[in-house]
Amino acid sequence: METRIDRIKKQLHAASYKLTPQREATVRILLDHEEDHLSAEDVYLLVKDIAPEIGLATVYRTLELLTELKIVDKINFGDGVSRYDLRQEGAAHFHHHLVCLECGAVDEIQEDLLGDVEGVVEKRWNFQIKDHRLTFHGICWRCNDRSSQDPPQ
Amino acid sequence: METRIDRIKKQLHAASYKLTPQREATVRILLDHEEDHLSAEDVYLLVKDIAPEIGLATVYRTLELLTELKIVDKINFGDGVSRYDLRQEGAAHFHHHLVCLECGAVDEIQEDLLGDVEGVVEKRWNFQIKDHRLTFHGICWRCNDRSSQDPPQ
DNA sequence: TCTTACTTTATAATCATTATCAATTGATAA
DNA sequence: TTATCAATTGATAATGATTATAAAGTAAGA
């Protein structure tokens, strides 16, 4: 069976890049933390556990490379840090995010909710859409539940 | 007639802040460049023309303050800079953006296209939406027109 | 083995933003 | 007006993320 890493290796080769040990270690960390939204620093600290000799600059370069190849997406939630998010295999568009203003959690919506909206934008604004970023800011289900359980004061 | 500046002055006073000359100069620049998406540095350079003694830190502080009061929105298009965008008066939500990958232009969609989508998200993910960010990346109408006029090679 | 291009590491440099602190200003009461 | 006190400002230092640089390492082909 072909693993996810194998397929990423092929994508690199197709663009004439090698899957060096450092790059592989970085990709493994991303795969192991698919749910999270890691900053370059986060990735660096995690990669150091499995490849202690790696340098921070290499992590940055690798993440940049993976972004170029659309294997990961680089996002920015407004704190001063870029975060890196593995794209679903075969996904044409970037998934959406729910950022909780109370607890800071970031949840993902894999489903594409923008089909209709994109149709409108393409037609009405004569804009040829290549990708999108959609983030909702608000109160997540966890915090919602918690506050509805609170006794009224 | 009450001007836009007057109303902003009231908003500041309501939160017990003053409209100092520096703040006023900064707001004027934002009003004069409503269509643009200025970085703090951009604003600083423009403000210096009408208030030469102003400091960069004051501009940052003012933009931060205006963001807190929801008079402007702070956005980030992925280059390393925050940009500041006047909110439409009375708008509950932030407007959408079209970023052209070819010429870099940033156009605005004032209309709220997310009504239905937000309904779905609130119900299905039990997420209480406070605000949103929606940006499309693609080719703008100007570049579309230009390339359709190009002779096929 | 030799060559060449690619990659990495460590570190310095850059750039946006934030913190600090003394000086200034504005509003208010005496 | 003057005294007072908190808010605000400007200059500058500090921070923190990211990028550039240069020397050394690595892999693959001739």
Automatic annotation (TrEMBL), chains A, B:
<dbReference type="GO" id="GO:0003700">
    <property type="term" value="F:DNA-binding transcription factor activity"/>
</dbReference>
<feature type="binding site">
    <location>
        <position position="103"/>
    </location>
    <ligand>
        <name>Zn(2+)</name>
    </ligand>
</feature>
<dbReference type="GO" id="GO:1900376">
    <property type="term" value="P:regulation of secondary metabolite biosynthetic process"/>
</dbReference>
<dbReference type="InterPro" id="IPR002481">
    <property type="entry name" value="FUR"/>
</dbReference>
<keyword id="KW-0804">Transcription</keyword>
<feature type="binding site">
    <location>
        <position position="100"/>
    </location>
    <ligand>
        <name>Zn(2+)</name>
    </ligand>
</feature>
<keyword id="KW-0805">Transcription regulation</keyword>
<keyword id="KW-0862">Zinc</keyword>
<feature type="binding site">
    <location>
        <position position="143"/>
    </location>
    <ligand>
        <name>Zn(2+)</name>
    </ligand>
</feature>
<dbReference type="InterPro" id="IPR036390">
    <property type="entry name" value="WH_DNA-bd_sf"/>
</dbReference>
<keyword id="KW-0479">Metal-binding</keyword>
<dbReference type="GO" id="GO:0045892">
    <property type="term" value="P:negative regulation of DNA-templated transcription"/>
</dbReference>
<keyword id="KW-0678">Repressor</keyword>
<keyword id="KW-0408">Iron</keyword>
<comment type="similarity">
    <text>Belongs to the Fur family.</text>
</comment>
<dbReference type="GO" id="GO:0000976">
    <property type="term" value="F:transcription cis-regulatory region binding"/>
</dbReference>
<dbReference type="InterPro" id="IPR043135">
    <property type="entry name" value="Fur_C"/>
</dbReference>
<keyword id="KW-0238">DNA-binding</keyword>
<dbReference type="GO" id="GO:0008270">
    <property type="term" value="F:zinc ion binding"/>
</dbReference>
<feature type="binding site">
    <location>
        <position position="132"/>
    </location>
    <ligand>
        <name>Fe cation</name>
    </ligand>
</feature>
<protein>
    <submittedName>
        <fullName>Fur family ferric uptake transcriptional regulator</fullName>
    </submittedName>
</protein>
<feature type="binding site">
    <location>
        <position position="140"/>
    </location>
    <ligand>
        <name>Zn(2+)</name>
    </ligand>
</feature>
<dbReference type="InterPro" id="IPR036388">
    <property type="entry name" value="WH-like_DNA-bd_sf"/>
</dbReference>
<dbReference type="Pfam" id="PF01475">
    <property type="entry name" value="FUR"/>
</dbReference>
